[in-house]
Amino acid sequence: MLKWSEALYVDPHLKSREERIRSRLDDGKTDLGHYLITLASNGSDQLDVIASGYLTQKRLLERLPLIVGIASSKKEALRLVVRIAEECMAETGDADIRGFLMGKQTGKEAWK
């Protein structure tokens, strides 16, 4: 099962289909063309943008960090990343996006 943020950023083009898309991805079905924004899997970056088609790779699926956004295209995913960064700066005054997003989580399992 994928780990979804409680404060998920969703591309406006997908808002009406968000639950269906999430359900399909949780069930292991690929929705080609969608992009996921996740916390970075390495220690030096803050966010990763990956195509949902990569979820067919079991190694990636097992190690996929918290998903914080979903978009209909790579361009829309990058727009969401900019929006997240702008909100982070406006609310916290710094660029610690990971800390900002984790502050929106209530469960400790989100830190994994």
The first-to-last residue Cα distance is: 14 Å
Overall residue-averaged pLDDT value: 87
Percent of residues in helices: 25-40%
**Structural domain tally:** 1
Main sheet overview: 4 strands, mixed
> Oligomeric status of the shown chains?
single chain
How many E strands?
4
Please state the structural category.
alpha+beta
Could you list the spans in which at least 5 consecutive residues all have pLDDT below 50? 108-112
Shape assignment: globular
Structure annotation, total helices: 4
Taking all Cα atoms into account, the compactness measure Rg is: 13 Å
* Percentage of residues in DSSP E strands: 15-25%
Order of helices and strands: EHEEHEHH
What's the quick description here?
The protein contains four helices and four strands, in the order E-H-E-E-H-E-H-H.
Word description of this protein:
- The protein is globular, with a radius of gyration of 13 Å.
- It is built from four helices and four strands.
- The protein is α+β, with helices and mostly antiparallel strands and 112 residues long.
- It has one domain (4-105).
SSE topology sketch:
Elements: E1 4-10, H1 18-26, E2 35-39, E3 47-51, H2 58-63, E4 67-71, H3 74-92, H4 97-102
Parallel strand pairs: 1-4
Antiparallel strand pairs: 2-3, 2-4
